[in-house]
Amino acid sequence: MATELKTTLADILAGYEVLKHMEDVPTEDRERLLASVTVQGRDKVTSMALAYKHLKADIAARETYADSILARNKAAVADMAWLQTQMKVALETLSLDEVKHALANVFLKDSQPSVEVVDEAQVPDRLKRATLVTLRSEVPEELIGAIKKVEVEKAAILELHKQGQPLPPGVKIARGKHLLVK
User: Which of 63, 83, 148, 155 could anchor a disulfide with 133, C-beta 3.0 to 4.6 Å?
Assistant: First the structure.
């Protein structure tokens, strides 16, 4: 069995450059050799182009498959949310705190209190977080005008509430229930 030597494109191109500048070879022979190397180069580029197209098609197929999987996952998440909402409504309507079964248990639990912003304009500035958009080295003394967005510090308000302090204007404490399925 004969062993075939693989010729790389780099070898073909290097050989072409060497042949092109060989002045001690008769012009007719050199042109014949250059034509032969050109055919090898063309064949190599064609093989590479086919490999490229195969890889490109492979990538497209995998991306399509991945998109399909993501779409199915998104649909499953939506189905789970719908089921969770339906179970929560059923337990609340039936005044049940739990449903136990050998294969699944459902519990309606009190949620931790959370802050609901009713009117952000009434919330004191000391309970708001501002996000700046600038380089650290360019932070001016006065930060006015560099504020990108302002958010109410709900965690700080909740902590004040837990310490027995009155709620600032513009917020209220929300108490709800959440569903736990085991």
Answer: 148
- Percentage of the residues of the chain whose pLDDT score is greater than 70: 89
DSSP 65-83: HHHHHHHHHHHHHHHHHHH
DSSP character at residue 27: H
Whether this prediction's pTM lies above 0.85 is answered by no
CB 51 within 8 A of CB 44: no
Alpha-carbon torsion (66, 72, 77, 80), positive or negative: negative
Write phi, then psi, for 33 (nearest 5 degrees): -65, -40
State both tokens at 154.
């709900």
Helix (H, G, I), strand (E, B) or coil at 19: helix
Alpha helices in 118-177 (DSSP H): 154-162
140 Cα distance to chain centroid: 34
Coil, strand or helix at 123: coil
CA distance 119 to 168: 11
Contact 104, 84 (CB under 8 A): no
- Residue 1 tokens read as 């069995």
Residue type, 142: E
Using one digit for the tens of pLDDT, what is the confidence trace for 23-51? 898 989 989 999 999 999 999 999 999 99
